[in-house]
Task: structure prediction
Amino acid sequence: MFLARALEVTRRYGDKLALDQVSFDVAAGELVGLLGPNGAGKSTLVNLLTGIRRPTSGRVELFGGDPRVPAHRRELGVTPQETGLPASLRVGEVVDFVSAHYDNPLPRAELLDRFGLTDLVRRQTGGLSGGEKRRVAVALAFVGRPRMVFLDEPTTGLDVQARRLLWDGIRAFSAEGGTVVLTSHYLEEIEALARRVVVIGGGRVLADDTVGAVRGLVAVRRVSLTVREPLPELAGVSDIERDGDRLHLLTGDADQLVRDLVAYGTAFEDLEVRPTSLEEAFLALTRESAAA
Ligand SMILES: Nc1ncnc2c1ncn2[C@@H]1O[C@H](COP(=O)(O)OP(=O)(O)OP(=O)(O)O)[C@@H](O)[C@H]1O
Result:
């Protein structure tokens, strides 16, 4: 059973095409990571699926109905990318305020304990650090015992220890059968939590697979070298950038590329191999999908 679905969804903001015919579904009990660089369309997809915005065309479903109808959002928890907490209220009061909207909320102490927030219960939210505020904002998504949560970049600005605490809270929810969709810029973060990752770039779904398979796709190396002659035809090169005599080749298998260069007798200098950033890997993936 799908708890959330997008069917050929397009969303424009004026001239800007933020999502381009995206189809995506989440089954009950799944923990799915949406991975993509800035501006890829992740938040837009989350906002459509949670009823905050409407698609320009295509269809979205939440618990089998229209996400804009409040009844379909009753079993949903959301942490948007930015949350404003009322500065003069204490953490415990904010939790109580949100709890009051639900028939059967989690007891306050249990929620705070799950997310390592017990020590903050009497602190005014205006005096919390950025990371502490973020942890409170994420915990609030779980107050109403949701069946599904959408967490938009839940660990932004958190240090390693706070991130682990949050991951533990998310894992516990998932282990009890809860469904989770989270967005991130980092494959490592999704890897720590999810098996399935959906890569979004330029408003399109570029890959929907296991973390292992996607790691293979984005594990691109940049091979830089200076050559003063035309390059032979090289297999496995997804992109070439030129900077005078200096060439930068993007490839999934740098070892094979260097072996091929040697086998062809190419006279190269200053060979350098380094991992690409996820950003560069996305660009290569986006170009591949555009060429397909
Ligand atoms: N309200 C809006 N008005 C105009 N353009 C928008 C609006 N919201 C998003 N966009 C544009 O749509 C595109 C997708 O944005 P979106 O926020 O969905 O990306 P994202 O993947 O969540 O990015 P980030 O990782 O930076 O949060 C971007 O080019 C963004 O500038």
Remarks:
- The longest strand covers residues 2-13.
- Residues 13, 16, 18, 36, 38-44, 81 surround adenosine-5'-triphosphate (CB under 6 Å).
- The first helix runs from residue 42 to 49.
- The chain is about 30% helix and 30% strand.
